[in-house]
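tokens incoming
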């Protein structure tokens, strides 16, 4: 984990790490006591802790984001993740990481988002895929704003005739594949890929048995889409693991036959930090395909 500030409280940092950046109400109360802040201040107070999960070997610019879901009363941390000697387009932005963390861990919506700096245009477009994008509140160190203010004249899902949105899409029927874990199949059924219908998900298994999952997230502007392996690796990073040091035993990518488009980018991302890890690759049939 990155050393963002030597004033970070170790017990708060450890609590965030142990929880993989997913903070329930009980943990929030504990952390508020340690930080001496109230609930309204918690999102901003957590930002340096979120940024400590960043891995930025290219830019050395550490970004943190904290997403909040009022329905579950959970906070979800996110941080930027860069891959050495690979295209800059493969970077996972902090805002993507926080939203991905929330989506993979049962959030119903992103009610608000705290960020260490103003979001780039790429992230504004990524957030515009959210079910409540028009109402999304964003808090920066300089004050509060909304996504609508940051992205006027927007282009979104409905412009492509898509009536679904991230956090508000129908489950997908997946035919069982014996080689795949039930958890991976469950993640496949929750993929958001309305533009290509490539139902794709990834699984990472560590030598100690820990597993991390990722789902494909598409975007109306296409480029801000998040690949399943980026999604899974972001989850790995949010557990405090350093990519280059992670003892990975297995990496799996599943895609939809006839719609596949993720294998090359997945292998490129993996090889940036582990040249010996073999990708296990499967194609499935989907009723959506």
């Amino acid at each position: 984990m990155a050393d963002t500030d030597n004033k970070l409280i170790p017990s708060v940092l450890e609590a965030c790490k142990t929880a993989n950046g997913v903070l329930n109400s009980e943990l929030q109360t504990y952390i508020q006591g340690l930080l001496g802040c109230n609930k309204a201040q918690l999102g901003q107070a957590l930002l340096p802790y979120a940024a400590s999960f960043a891995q930025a070997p290219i830019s050395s610019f550490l970004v943190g984001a904290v997403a909040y879901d009022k329905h579950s009363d959970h906070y979800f941390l996110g941080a930027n993740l860069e891959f050495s000697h690979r295209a800059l387009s493969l970077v996972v932005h902090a805002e993507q990481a926080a939203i991905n963390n929330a989506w993979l861990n049962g959030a119903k919506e992103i009610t608000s988002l705290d960020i260490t700096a103003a979001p780039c245009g790429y992230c504004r477009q990524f957030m515009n895929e959210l079910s409540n994008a028009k109402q999304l509140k964003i808090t920066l160190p300089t004050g509060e704003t909304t996504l609508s203010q940051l992205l006027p004249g927007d282009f979104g899902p409905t412009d492509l005739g898509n009536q679904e949105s991230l956090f508000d899409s129908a489950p997908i029927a997946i035919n069982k594949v014996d080689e795949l874990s039930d958890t991976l199949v469950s993640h496949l059924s929750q993929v958001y890929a309305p533009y290509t219908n490539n139902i794709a998900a990834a699984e990472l298994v560590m030598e100690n048995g820990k597993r991390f999952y990722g789902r494909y997230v598409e975007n109306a502007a296409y480029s801000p889409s998040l690949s399943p392996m980026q999604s899974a690796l972001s989850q790995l990073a949010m557990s405090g693991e350093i990519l280059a040091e992670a003892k990975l035993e297995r990496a799996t990518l599943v895609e939809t036959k006839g719609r596949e488009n993720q294998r090359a980018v997945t292998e490129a991302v993996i090889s940036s930090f582990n040249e010996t890890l073999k990708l296990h690759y499967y194609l499935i049939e989907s009723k959506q395909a």
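note: The domain at 10-155 is CATH 3.40.140.10 (Cytidine Deaminase; domain 2).
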